[in-house]
Amino acid sequence: MTHEATGAPTPHAPPPPGTVAVYRGATLFDGTGRPPRPSTSVVVDGPMIRAVGDDAEIAATVPADAHVFDLGGRFVMPGLIDSHQHLATPPDRPEAEAVLDRLVHSGITAIRDMADDLRQVGDLARATLVGEIPGPDIRYAALMAGPGFFDDPRTHQVSQGATPGAVPWMQAVTPDTDLRVAVALARGTHAAAIKVYADLDHRTVAAITAEAHRQGIPVWAHAAVFPATPRQVVEAGVDSVSHVTLLAFEGADGPLTTYKDKPRVDHERFAAEDDPRLDELFALMRRNGTVLDATAGMWESAELAGDGPEDAARARAHSKLAAHITAQAYRAGVDLSTGTDYETPPQEPFPALFEELAFLVRRCGIPPEEVLRSATLLGARAAGAEAGMGSVEAGKLANFVVLEESPLLDIDHLRSVCLTVKRGHRYERGAYDAAHPRTVRTAEPGRAGTEEAR
After folding, report:
1. Average per-residue pLDDT in the chain?
2. Model-level pTM?
3. DSSP annotation of 439
4. Domains and CATH numbers, the chain
């Protein structure tokens, strides 16, 4: 090469180190467990937080060329994290970019993509990281499942041009699979984790987990993998489990066989009282540090309401079950993260994560400050990124959101977002609203085919 091309424009890139901005006059909820602090300044240097402290103390140390933003007492909290998104099932680049744009302008600075066509997701992750497009950081998983899963139409959607189950981002695991090679192939996609999905016994789940951990990559799993039970999945040492209603299969009336042939579960009983087997499971999760990606509110979404009374009744039953088991898990001290597994329709001004947080507060009885912790620090833990995000502290990424009103008083105050700072770059909500005028709300569903509904 005779010259170095500049590449695509990066209008959303983080500012370079040495570019100092001071956000003063904040009422700061820093995500560490401390109560909100008034009259607090956050000093940002490039993409990082340099210092957090009292306004008067920080003012004495601010360089003369710093950009100073007076927040006038507004509520500041860490950037939100959606721990269960799907951006490319099937791949649709314009739709995915629109979702990412809305997410970051709503205060969401990171997401977990829980296995998709990683050819597209990997490029979206690169594009949001370097600032070609607006969006949160994307930490994504490569999937492993038993061979029987790969006639699912979604596996064909994410493997177009190749054979489902025989691509590095979505692999069929058999007794003959060399797991050292399989995990290495998954890591080669630059995935942040291995996702264990379906049709694997507990020995195989444990073997995948052990090899992934040996190679330095976490494992995110469905809460029941069929035939592996929830307890067996947790005992295997996975780092997080998804879909709280799947935990009810710990008390199924029959043995677990395959993902498509689930045994009967007495949902009404699990939704009405605490089950002692689940208490034992939650104690194990607490000891192991297993994070529960509950996706508790998804059954109240328009996407899962269905087309008739039977579907609606099913969704109501699952919603009641999700609310009770999530509340039981919270009381047992299990770490909860906030995932969605669906998205609101394109014409909606705010994303599905706001609905999930409201569900956790209102239906599960979890205090708002604990829900915000789940959506920030525990979300970062679920994503394997707690060292760099999840709280507003010196040495972490400059990821935080500014709100006009406190969500500790009303969780719906998340909709008062006025500014997102992600890796030091400013995303003004007002500019987004002006560019995206809203139409009258309709019953149009969001993206089809959430995992747990299948």
Report:
1. 94
2. 0.95
3. -
4. 20-77+394-435 (2.30.40.10), 79-382 (3.20.20.140)
